[in-house]
Request: fold
Amino acid sequence: MLDHLILGLTAALQFKQFMFMIAGTVIGLWVGVLPGLGGPVAMAILIPFTFSMDPLSALLMLASISVGAAFGGSVTSILLNIPGEASSAATAYDGYPMAQQGKAKVAMGLSAGASLAAAIVGVLILMFASGPVAKAALAFSPAEYFALAILGLTVVSVAALGSTIKGLVMGALGLAISLIGIDSILGAERYTFGFVYLLDGISFVPVMVGLFAITELISMILEGGTIAKAGKLEGSLWDGFRDTFRYPFTLIQSTAVGAFLGMIPGIGATAANFLAYSVAQRSSKHPERFGKGAPEGIIAPEASNNSCIPTSLIPALTLGIPGGATSAILLVAVTLQGLRPGPMLFTSNPELIWGFFMGLLIGAVMATILYLIMIPWFALITIVRIELMAPMLLIVTLFGAYANERNMMDVFVAIFFGLFGYFLRRHGYPLISLVIGLILGKLAEGSFHQALMISDHDYSVFFLRPLSASIFALCLVLVLWPGVKKRLGHGGAEVT
Amino acid sequence: MSLDTSARAYWREEFSLIALLLLFFIAIVAFAYTLPFDARLFPLIIGCAGIALTLAVALEQLRRHRAGAVAVVDADDPATRADWPRYATALLSAPAFGLLFWLFGFIIASFAAMMLIPLLMGYANRRRLVVSAAITVAVLAVIGPYLLNVELPQGVVGDWLIDKLALRAG
Reply:
């Protein structure tokens, strides 16, 4: 093992690899800040440039983009309440209220601290647990995947304590929207009404841009002034960075949630981000502080999405099953380099694999340093007049919606969801449930049908397998718990 | 707007949203019937669950409405405090930008948005406005095609003009 670590470190610390990592991190931070343009988009754009590179440089540059984007995505979530990356959406719930209180630098310090710690833990898990974890993940049958998708939806819907039913309605709406397009079982067209655009389903990016960016823009224009209400900035970056480690339980818990969900193909960092936030809120001694600028509300989502990214590479590298968009693109890059993902990759190319692992560790530290250098400049946004900033944000966000697929229809979809989302949010419908429903819809339906096919259409398969039955029981407890808690006389925070 | 008028508007919006959601879920169920069994099973489950949940929300809200819950309207809600020109600017900025983007392309739509939205919001410093509009549009015009490899569309009218004047290269 020590030989492998030294081998990896020697490979990753070569000047050439180092420069590719810096380039990847800067690109990642930059695209992470732009709403709609996430790490996977930048990685996909840059894949053709990696053809001529050696395998380690190509993988390190692409992975650095992903790490940088995860860091950068939190910037706009905190400063503007507009997630730069889907996987940073929950960060806005407490990051933005902190920015409104003039503590944008503290919030970004918290984000940097949590991201760094979680990314390091995630890479260590990737290094030392790849083999056993990959075997354990194979024990999950489609029934468990379906149960997990429903659990994800339930946890997030229930987090809106004041309006559990509204949360569940939004979850059902997200699932229903995910049904649009060609169905994955028979290839039948559903709800397309002859529109070619709808054949691929409603793309996730314009919906996110609409629900989070346009709705926030409408509120900003109505409110006017500046984001930091007092018009000045308080607190320092280091206060936030240091404060991260004053909440060790939240940090460890959320890192574990992200790392676990990363290992399960199809769940992804976005779901992990929301789930970790909900879990942190539920387990907090002061849930009423969430949504009003609680440090745990920033630590939880940031820790989870940054630990999720490295662990999502476990099924990709060991089994060839991508855990999400990022690992799918990395798999493409590995294949394009003439390599075959799987257990043999570890024995035939130890220098590449361990160099890649060490590069991810160095990349996390590098992303933190670059992020910390850039934060003071980013934070100034909160004291710019909204009259000037609103049109700039409108242009950039709708450009992001267009740039994702270069399709004008995506712009209209973003605008529709923006206006619809504004009224939904105003009436206490939690938009996160809609997003989670949309993300998990395909996984839920696919695994639902697979489970039924395997069991010869016996619906009891979901309740007779111990693991899926336990997950469904947990869903039931979560749905009933707010009512029980209300009767017992406890309050809670509301997340919309 | 008085709090009473705001409360009436709130309930009107609330029940319109519920009706819209109910209609959507009914459509999901209704249009599923033409699909083969395996393709309609999941939509039927989700659609029926959606209808049941939306009806539960409707009942809950009806109960609150009958109880005369005026406290639903937050006095600090910017939508309640905003005058109609600002409210119209907030709601129509994105659709108007989308329409301009589609008709005249990204550059013209962006420049129009940068110049008009601040003016409609009451921003008075015109020199700063022109400078920030020019810089924003110029930066995006460079970043889009050259760094992100995203061609900026010229819009329906722009494309028609380019074809009409035979300006297209090649």
